[in-house]
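Can anyone check this?
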Amino acid sequence: MTARQDEGGLRVLIVDDDITSRYLLVAALERAGLEVMEADHGEEALALLASAERSNQGWPDIVLLDVLMPVLDGFATCRRIRARPGGAHLPILMMTGLDDEESIERAYEAGATDFEVKPLNARILPHRIRYMVRSGATTEALHHSRHRLDAAQRMARIGHWEWDLERGAIQWSELSLEIIGDRAATAATPGLDRLLSLVHPRDKRRVALWFEQLAHSHESSELSHCVIDADGRERHLRQFVEVGIEDAVRPARLYGAVQDITAIREAEDHIQRLAFFDSLTGLANRVLFLQFLEQTLKLVPRHQRTGALLFLDLDNFKQVNDTLGHQAGDLLLQAVAKRLVASLRSIDLVSRYEGDEHQHLARLGGDEFALLLPEVGNGRDAARVAARLLEALAPPFLLAGHEVVITPSIGITVFPQDGGHASDLLRNGDMAMYHAKRAGKNTFKFFDASLNDAALLRLRTETALRHAIDNDELRLYFQPLLDLASGEMRGLEALLRWTHPELGEVSPVTFIPIAEETGLIVPIGEWVMRGACEQLRAWQSAGHPIARVAVNVSAYQFKQPDFPDKVERILAESGLAPDCLELELTESLLMDQAEESVEMLHRLKAVGVQLAIDDFGTGYSSLSYLKRFPIDRLKIDRSFIVNIERDRDNAAIAQAVIAMADTMSLHVTAEGVETSEQLDFLRANCCGEAQGFLFSKAVPVEEIPDLIRYLAERQGHRESRAPAPTEARQTHGDED
């Protein structure tokens, strides 16, 4: 001990910009007989120390150093004191109002002897100061502080090392060796060779260059890199370095810390994958694909390249989900993704971005995929890639013991000629894909401007159709059903017509598919059924002898679980007898999920309505199912009536249907009768009923009374005047 220490007159330097806190500490220490020096910030403290050296007064016995100060904070001040001659063993008690692990770690890393959280206990502080400066107390405090620091570092997975640049030796802490994955090394392993031998090959040159620059720098720095540990695992590290300056020219030592951030990086990678990759297939998702597409498009003007986007949709994928379940559907999507990836060649994916090999192919959602070809010579190159994708998906997939065949429809759009924005190209590819579906599926089609025009018209039509009922734009037309033996009108088929103020008369061929795709067919179909029932009830009340009205039912309506309930409710509200309503269902509709169809048909028969199979002969009915269907009527499709008097095949089919219906006690109606020759053939073969232009086209409600009178006048006549050729051409298709 010095004489001053023996006498109890210890000298304390308090460095704190908080005047109030400093005043209280000064008062408490002076009352305890201690000599106090004061400084507002680190620069002033360093100046006081330098002045004390010059005046031979000697340094203070201990420094109380605040952390947060202007000009030069406590951490930097502590490092500067330690770097000065004689400053290595000066007790430094850091005072901090930051009660957090990071601040404590930084205090020890900066060289603090110990730390204390504000506010300090003024009564105990003088005793603690005397303890710290007592002989041997500094060593004990350093050991205790180091133990606390080691515990904090181990929790944060931070090790430390010190590099003596003159000797070229690195002193590693035990934890730092553990972190870099070097089990064989000792704490005194010299040089950087050992560390560089563990660095991942892709980072080795960058890490070596960083350490080389540090040896000639006066600034702190940090670097993240990867190492391969003794078990062959990748581990992500972050290096922090502080430079110890021996003179103004060159650094003498590097004080480093190394942190294992593998868990952090894995969490970041996981978040990255959730944000930008499809969790089911591992492919890029829509967000990442759009970003990459936009980046690619920005390069197009500069490099004058042509690229292509392929939009792929799986044909009939819904059937896999419906029949085998969604788990099988997920397995199929994963298998499709693997085949698509395997079918692509590196030459297809030439790009001007590094590290983007996972961004070319994406799952956009559902069963939709997109592929970006950044550089193609022309459209033919894109077509060759599309053909290869078709070939890759052609072999059957084996899913949970089931062999599944799935085909794609692919739309191709070429840029820059088809568009310059990602959203435009995706829309164009989508339209081209639907063009491929309409062309028969399992093929590819290029985008064409006419497709865009058609899509805009469809969108406009869909929007208008959504308001058609409310705007009173829909009308019911009726076509008579005549008994061929007596010539009497047995009933009417209700047919829907739509006239829009701007679009004009929109064909059912156009708007019915749109209504089915959008689900609008449910309210529209209900409107048709209600209107037909109410109108027939009104005619019957007026004395017109009309036995039934036939209404077409779409597949979407038929599959609604509450459809029979709706039918029953409409009949009750209209007052029409159930057997006066005939529901027409297509053959293909009934054969799709035939077992469910049998159940639904029986529910409808329980309501009391009549059931007819429309367009009979165009589907693939099984006779066993046909016997199980509780139907009342078969309607021979018009395609078999054309040239029936000369076409032997059509004649044979019509005769077979009539004979089968007679055997099964079913009624038969022939559709599309247009000539007296067709009428004679049907009468000769005992067909019970017919409809077609030969008798009347579909007419609006107000013309039905006149039509009834006209047909009554013709009753008993075997010949009917065929419509004029011009009239036939104008009205052709009205009965559909």
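Reply from J.R.: I decoded it. The chain has a mean pLDDT of 83.
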